[in-house]
Design goal:
The structure is a homodimer of 273-residue chains. Chain A is of the alpha/beta class and 273 residues long. Chain A folds into 2 domains: 68 residues, Arc Repressor Mutant, subunit A (Orthogonal Bundle), CATH 1.10.10.10; 193 residues, Rossmann fold (3-Layer(aba) Sandwich), CATH 3.40.50. Chain A is built from 8 helices and 13 strands. In chain A, the strands form 4 sheets. In chain A, strands 5, 6, 9, 10, 11, 12 and 13 form a 7-stranded mixed beta sheet that branches. Chain A has a two-stranded antiparallel ribbon with strand order 1-2. The longest helix of chain A is centred in the first third of the chain and has 17 residues. Chain A starts with 5 loop residues before the first helix and ends with a helix. Chains A and B meet through α1, α3, β4, α5 and α6 of A and α1, α3, β4, α5 and α6 of B.
């Protein structure tokens, strides 16, 4: 094989890194691919680190140690994040989104891949270094954004169901108060998670936190520790649920005496760098 | 601004392209970013095209015409696709995956982001040039793979529900035979799709095609044309449903007199280049 030129190498490396978010790729892999010494690969990586940083396209880092290598994280700057979330707020504050009964139509935004990808990347942000083993969501609307969050963190997605299904094998079922005076059921396959793991809960929407508390109770049944909760949209006021940190992209407030919501970026999204 | 060097430019361009699958990015965008003439950007793109092709990392193409530019499609070689699907088959053929009653446990694979991303890229393959407007799936298990397919095609995902929900606004409900002698209901928000659009149906699993035919009937109610159906796993034998092409990654066959399935790659996946 002819020597692969630097321009070609960085193209290939960037593509590989983008396709493997939050995974540490050993330098040796690139050394073998390109039949190159580690020092040359290091120089390539340094250029990629710099370019990605300069253009605000995520984070490329070298991780040292025995299991070391290079890692890409899809984390943008605070200002880019805020401006994305502000655009979402503008869309959600459009009057035609209000449905009878004071509900907000957001199913379309929650199923637009380029938006949920971005939401997932942002929601993953506070949890990159938290040793998360899997993302947990409750069916249905939050699944796309939870999928993207799980991909950003490079962990499996686990989906709790409203009822146990024969094709999921034996399951643990719990009943939980839905926050509206009723009782709901949540089910998870026994083989889906293991005792001692750490979960990040991701969902699209939180009003009173009934479903979120249900998921926390379900995880307790499995001996799983919940590291935090991330939502696309949550009711203003809930900073903690069951003493766990809550990271919504946006908060909503229902206006007194009106069937209208006002949506704004959550404080942690607004904080400067 | 100092002139941006080629190595830096191709890193940035590759990252932008990977993040925007199946979208045509005008050359002018890169010309502006780098304060560069179109001829230099063309040379950069040619290098990226070549590198991505050489290393089997997808497809970068120049699209000519008024709305022209450069486009990335996450399409791998036939041989890489087949070997990925063969690995999936091996995992699914493991005896511990069989559940009582002849069911196969595949929820874990369907929620592993790095696997569903790859599945979605492959399922999108035959439909890149088919003018698809959205991907339709029926809740729940197929949502992650349908999300990834929609992202690869750069179209919205639309999720049919088992019952209409107040937060989705007015909806169209249909009843359909589930293929097991019963009747099921499927619901879709009125505002989710428009008459005259073209849909690709994506789902995780098809046995008798009841749900698939339900989705086709639902689309007929909306005046939407279905271009085809893509599944992760389908029962052997169904080459067409309602005269529409069917693209499963894998076929399964239930062994006579045994509670066991045999899973193998679908013929279109096995075909040589």
């Amino acid at each position: 094989m002819d020597k692969v030129k630097r321009v070609e190498r960085v193209i290939v490396m960037m593509r590989v890194l983008c396709g493997m978010p939050n995974q540490i790729i050993p330098y040796s892999r690139f050394c073998e691919m390109f039949q190159l010494a580690k020092s040359s690969v290091s120089e390539d990586v340094a250029m990629i680190e710099r370019a990605v940083k300069t253009w605000d396209l995520g984070e490329v880092e070298t991780v040292t140690g025995a299991a070391g290598g290079v890692r890409f994280r899809p984390r943008g700057s605070k200002s880019a994040t805020l401006s994305f979330v502000q655009t979402l707020c503008e869309q959600l504050n459009a009057p035609e989104r209000m449905l009878p009964g004071g509900y907000l139509y957001l199913s379309d935004l929650l199923a637009e891949p380029k938006l949920v990808r971005r939401m997932g990347d942002i929601l993953a942000g506070p949890y990159f270094d938290q040793g998360i083993d899997f993302v947990l969501t409750m069916e249905t609307k939050g699944i796309p954004v939870a999928t993207m969050t799980a991909e950003a963190l490079h962990v499996p997605l686990v989906i709790a169901r409203r009822a146990s299904k024969v094709y999921e094998g034996s399951a643990v079922n719990i009943n939980f108060p839905d926050g509206k005076g009723g009782i709901e059921t949540m089910s998870l396959a026994r083989r889906a998670v293991k005792s001692g793991q750490r979960a990040l809960i991701v969902d699209d929407f939180m009003r009173r936190g009934g479903t979120a508390r249900g998921m926390i109770a379900l995880m307790a049944e499995f001996g799983v520790c919940v590291a935090g909760l991330a939502f696309v949209l949550a009711q203003d006021g809930e900073a903690l649920i069951a003493d766990l940190p809550v990271h919504p992209l946006m908060y909503f407030k229902t206006e007194e005496g009106r069937d209208a919501m006002v949506v704004r970026p959550a404080p942690w999204v607004e904080q400067p760098e």
